Amino acid sequence: MNTPVPNGEDPLGGTESLLGASQGAAEGADRFLADSRGEEAVESARRGRWARHLLEESTTIAATLHASAGNEVFLILRTGERRRVEVSSLGEDYVQVRGRASILWIRLTCVIAVEAASSVVANPEAFDPAEGLLSEVLEDLVADELQITLTLVGGAVLAGVAISVGAALRLRLPQSGNIAVIDLANIEIILLDIPQSPR
């Protein structure tokens, strides 16, 4: 049943009012959608900048070496030497690497740069050096009485059998029969040759 409207007015404001209201609502929705997309783009850019900032802040030589475990990299040492090696493991103060016929333990302070594949990404959350200290590596080498070659601060090289380690390393030099006493802080690289099997 239709109720008569006084003076012939439409209580809803007429058809024209309804059309105008729906157009206004559509324009408002379009503006809202555009604003949302704009805010989303700004937020996405902000997140990207923050992720780059975190990566830049967390990328260190140690984290890069850790991420490179099992991969070949080039190490640039403070002596200016550039070595192609495979990263084996990382200790608290050294990196263990493999050369063609040797295992090397290199003090981290001697590594001034690492060239790694661009796919290697340092992940600081995964970084947990648990292999110990360079002095502990020397203790193992003393126990095994292995022939090693040491590179010292300044570039001097000594080869011999490590016979004891404490505050200093005692190294028996086979050519002269002398004993060298080396301050541990002055050892930059320990090299252990790997015997090659005859082919």
Task: List descriptors.
199 residues; alpha+beta; SH3 type barrels; 2 domains; ten-stranded antiparallel sheet; 10 strands
Structure, explained:
This protein has helices at 14-58, 61-67, 134-144, and strands at residues 72-77, 82-90, 94-98, 102-107, 111-115, 147-152, 157-165, 168-172, 179-183, 187-193. By secondary structure, it is α+β, with helices and mostly antiparallel strands. It folds into two domains: 15-57; 61-193, SH3 type barrels. The chain starts with 13 loop residues before the first helix and ends in a 6-residue tail after the last strand. The relative contact order is 0.11. The model has no long low-confidence stretch (mean pLDDT 81).
In summary, what is this structure?
The chain is α+β, with helices and mostly antiparallel strands. It has three helices and ten strands; from the N terminus they run ααβββββαβββββ.
Question: Which bin fits the share of residues in helices?
Answer: 25-40%
Main sheet specs: 10 strands, antiparallel
Distance between the termini: 106 Å
Q: Which strand order do you get reading across the main beta sheet?
A: 5-1-2-3-4-10-6-7-8-9
* Large-scale geometry: elongated
Number of helices: 3
Number of strands: 10
CA radius of gyration:
34 Å
Structural class: alpha+beta
Low-confidence spans? none
Number of domains: 2
Mean pLDDT: 81
**Which CATH class of the largest domain?**
Mainly Beta
